[in-house]
Amino acid sequence: MFAAFAVAGAQYLFRKVGQSPLFPPEFVATAPFFARIEALAPEDLRNLGYLLAVIGALLFGEGAVRWPRRALRGALGKAQVQPDASARRRLHPILQGVGLVLAGGLLIHLWRGGIEGAPLHMVWLLALVMYLLGSARGDALIGRATGQTRPSPSEAPERAWPLLLLILLAVVVLTGWRLSAAPLRVDGDVASHGLQALEIATGQETRLFAPGWANIPLLAYYPAALGMLLSGDWLVGNRLAGVYAGVLTIFGVWLLGCELFRRALSPTGTTAEHGHPTLGPLFAAALTAIGYTFVHFSRLPEYLEPVAWGTLSLWALHRGVRTGQRLPLALSGLLLGMAGVFYYSGRVFYVVAGAWWLGLLLTRRDWLRPLGWAGVGVWLGGLFVFLAPFAGVWLAAPQAFLTRMQEVSILRPDALVHMQGVYGVQGLGPVLLENARRAALTFFIHPDTSTHFGWRGPLLDMLNGGLLLLGIGYLLLNLDRLMSWLLLSWFLVVLFLGGVMTTNTPFWPRFLPVLPVIGLITGLTSDRWLATLREDGGPWLESLGRSALIGLLVLVGISNWVAYYEWSSVHNDPASAVGRGVRILPDGVHVYLLDTGEPGRPHWGERTVEFLAGGPVRAIVRETLSPSAWPDRLPPNSAVLLLPEDQALAPALQTRYPGGVYMVQRNRRGDPILFIYRTPNDNGT
Known about the structure:
This protein has 685 residues and is mostly helical. It folds into three domains: 2-63; 85-568, no CATH class; 574-678. 60% of the residues lie in helices and 4% in strands.
């Protein structure tokens, strides 16, 4: 309990430093201890927070019930799989070989400048199917040859899937409710993603492998395009790509939690140690889902999609190695390739997967022995089959590929010079050290530096932040467990590649691959805390702690959602206000934007304005109006858009073009964000 109080105190200090008063006056009046803390300088308060965080993390790591060193000895599929000679001569190598050959042919064809079209897409899909079928066929033959049987359902935490469905339903509500209204602001990059998806939805673009906006392969824009076709709305459809990614991410966290938190059964048919086998994965999924950072990015396209596919890839990798099956390994390679062709952060999973292979090689050689290096080959083959056509396009235009790889790297000379100026230091070393400090503290102190969110608080709420601190302490003091290696390597790789080695740290869109592993760490912390309560106080204390944790999770989830919705329905910019004004106007309207000569005003051609206006699918007439040169008249059925700072022009506009009416758009707080002056139609309406 002292560990929990210590990290709670650290979290409180992190959030209150610089605010006055630090504690309620009645606390200071009754306890001189609080008065002495209040008198400390901000830097000393922050250092006290660091000290409390370290003490709490290490105390929990030392005092919590240990995870079994070999949690799955003799359990599910410990790959007592020794394929016989006849199994090796069967059809599955041929099917896999056909898939590899087809993928290689696509690579060479596109590398040599071949045209991409529907026949190539069909060949690629055939290659994927053949490779997966070959892998599945090999598993079936090996299972028959060795008499391998499925595990008892009582061994698997997957039996809690009905509770997962409730969590996924809550995720759909959190991420899909009033999807077009919140967030109110539409970032320029999100708008560019939507404009590219609009081209696909309208049939102007049909390729998959060629680079689209920001040199991201066009395949990455198809989910948003599909959302547009299903919803009939370009804004909602663009954001639906985030909703499906959010649901897949939570599903992936739960599946991976079921893999990592699976426990061996004792001869009596019970788990070999205290704890409920289904709670860890469920807590991991729920704690991930309630975070305001997760909720925000699951309401946007592109950023969370590689996280979903990368998490599912790691689940399939772990399951394939643990069970000695080819199909999960092949699927893992395919899913990893999928993660890599989306937003930049998806590349992190390549390094994470490599670190996982290293950990498995060092600690679970008995799992790797049945398939041997052939298992690694199956995994690499799946990755190759998926990425082959994209690699052909990249080899044909290497500059686009290199630009994509170096886009956000701190090693770019211009990026390094920029960050030296921001930090006021000289040299690569000091910049990397400051990046590392900000990356590590963004979970508790430093806000987002990107324009994609702009939240002024830390990346994690107090519940997730506190559980993360406790979990890191537990993992550090249990490095002899495979789970500790897998979770810590994932966490540190994202911090290094997404924070230390990039510009403008902490840029949260690049940190999103850390959300699933934070969920898994906090889920593990919850599981170990409950197991410790049971060992120290018995089942009644564990039950009390479980109820308290669930209640706290619900309260924090509600608080996070309310705070996020209040903020996102007010946070706005002029381009989004103007674009949303154009969005509600009917087709055929002459829409006028004011040009007062001031820099930074929204204008036609700006990404956000064009996307919200509907891009090429809207039949509106785009016009510009200058107050210094009013035209004699406006066409019937015109609309002039004024920002709040243009209100002084409203009387002159109505006097010069009489007969029109003003419409006012307001945010949730009631503040006006846009005025629309509509002139009458020819019939006077």
